[in-house]
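so im writing up the methods section and need the CREG1 protein record in one place, dumping it here so i stop losing it
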Amino acid sequence: MVPLLLLCAAALPLAARGAIPAPEEAARMARFVLHNCDWGALATLSTQEGLRGRPFANIFSLSDGAPGPHGGSGVPYLYLTDLEISVQDLEVNSNASLTVSLAQTPYCKKHKYDPQNPLCAHIIFCGNIVKVNDSEASLAKKALFSRHPEMESWPKDHNWFFAKFNITNIWVLDYFGGLKTVTPEEYYSVKP
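--- predicted struct ---
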């Protein structure tokens, strides 16, 4: 009985956020995947000696809003410090790509989908990272700290700041047949 309860508890967060969108709803799938993910792989162009100009990917915690079916804005918020190597890259060139995948949720394991299987949906965003303005900082803080409460206790002397990923291009891989493109307008016009 206990293993069954643990399995149900593990599946609850994704199930509570609504059913997975159909493959023909690419914009909704993009919103759904982002909202259900707590982290992503952010790729920058490196400025580090020996890697200058080469792609460099790093993991970052993110949030588009509090967990739950109606909490997401679609905007990927991040909590960053200039001490971080990828942030140093962004200071020279703010262009980046961000990949999020349902592989980090119970969904793919439950369905026995390998993370590389297209049915284990993943989204690739391209755009740039910008610091949020004062009026948006409280929204970013609420979005991030609701999912990542540990962040509130991170060292103050690291000069953390809130940033967002400004989306310019979106690719969705959630079914067989290749990538689907979604415009930012389509993306922001749907709910996850």
